Amino acid sequence: MSKAQKIALLGAGHMGGALLAGWLRRKSTGIKPENVIVLDPSPSDEVQALIEEHGLEHAPAMTLAMSTQVATILVAIKPQMLDKVAPALAPVLAPETGVISIMAGTTVKRLEAVFGDRPIVRAMPNTPAAVGAGITVCVSNIAGEKIEKNATRLLSVAGEVEWVRDERLLGAVTAVSGSGPAYVFLLAEALAGAGFGEGLPRELADKLARQTVIGAGALLAASDKDPQALRRAVTSPNGTTQAALDVLMGAGGGLPELVRMAVNAAERRSRQIGADADNG
């Protein structure tokens, strides 16, 4: 067994489970089931089914025997669990074992304090990763093609992967793409509510709002035009869409200004959470 092939997944919750399913489903990653270790005392029913179906190695906690074979550990636990798990885990990892963390608000500095002097990647995915349509932005404490290639291989099963060199940008990433799905869900919620208010049956209003968001997203993905061009293409002068946009883009900056303020608030909160974690 090649040490470079062993991958440990620490935490098999919603996001960790989605990544695990992607590793097993997508053959292009080159990840074999016998090279995956799931470290979780109580995996979800979905993950338990994957463990049984593929014969994955499963343990409630890392053991010395396992750690000597692990080249990469992907940390997908809740941030507040780090201090409970890491003290026993970090000392038994091999010095060259790489760490990839998808824990929200957990900085590279904090990860280095816990896992020591080893390659560390901090990654910020978003919830569409559960259906392979997410985007993840990464930063590493060690620049190099090898570590980026490995992390991209493991994270790309959840969608697109991008890299930044300045960790401070992850606050803005969190505010735009990490929290962004909630903004879109709110739009769908508000659109359905408005349709219901105009007399549509609730079920039809919900379906129209849901499919409109899905369809617009698919069109945006398929088009080489930017969002502004697509918006203009569907807006006839003095038509119904223009009447609605006059409200959404009206006094006080309208929706664009509200979104700017929302993203700024989320970015500031992300930085504060990271600072609080670093200060212990």
Keywords:
280 residues, eight-stranded mixed sheet, 12 helices
Distance between the termini: 39 Å
Write down the overall mean pLDDT.
Answer: 90
Low-confidence stretches: none
Strand content: 5-15%
Please tell me what the overall shape is: globular
Supply the helix-strand structural class: alpha/beta
Total strands: 8
- Radius of gyration based on Cα positions: 22 Å
How are helices and strands ordered from N to C?
EHEHEHEHEHEEHEHHHHHH
> What share of the residues lie within helices?
40-55%
Number of helices: 12
Largest sheet: 8 strands, mixed
Strand sequence of the main sheet, in spatial order? Answer: 3-2-1-4-5-6-7-8
Question: Any overview of this molecule?
Answer:
This protein has 280 residues and is of the alpha/beta class. Helices cover 51% and strands 13% of the residues. α8 (180-197) packs across α9 (202-222). The longest helix has 25 residues, at 254-278. The protein is globular. The mean pLDDT is 90.
